[in-house]
Design goal:
Number of strands: 0
CATH architecture of one domain: Orthogonal Bundle
Shape: flat
Helix content: 40-55%
Number of helices: 9
CATH topology of one domain: Protocatechuate 4,5-dioxygenase, Chain A
Structural class: mainly alpha
Length: about 140
């Protein structure tokens, strides 16, 4: 068993590494299937039935059906693949980024235009307070 990676201690961070890729293989293959118009149509007609064609585990299936965007990343989804589900729903990347951040897409856009999310609370869990005045 490999030792934990440094980035695993950053709150809300789900780095798509080799281990997560192995876990999320079926989920990502489902998402890639949505590249074809006929598959998108089949998915929209009956999402649960369409998912039956893929070896998703129960939590992966739940995250897709619930549109739990962060959950999909936790269970091995790659953002560049899972966003295909959002596109099926008529959503943009900015819509999903806002949802993942807990804000509207307009608030998310403004946050990005003004320098991004505050580092407070977004550093390694074992780090001390962040000095935002000096860097």
């Amino acid at each position: 068993m490999s030792k934990p990676r440094d980035y695993e201690s950053i709150p809300g961070t789900y780095v798509y590494d080799a281990a997560r890729g192995r876990i999320g293989y079926a989920l990502n293959m489902f998402c890639m299937s949505l590249n074809k118009a006929e598959n998108r149509q089949r998915f929209k007609e009956n999402e649960a039935a369409y998912l039956d064609g893929f070896a998703l585990n129960a939590e992966q299936r739940r995250t897709v059906l619930a549109r739990d965007w962060l959950g999909m990343l936790r269970v091995g989804g790659n953002i560049y693949y899972t966003i295909k589900i959002a596109f099926c729903d008529g959503l943009t990347f900015q819509d999903v980024a806002g949802m993942m951040s807990g804000v509207s897409k307009e608030t998310y856009a403004q946050m990005m235009l003004t320098g991004g999310r505050s580092p407070d609370g977004n550093r390694h869990k074992d780090s001390g307070p962040v000095d935002t005045d000096h860097g």
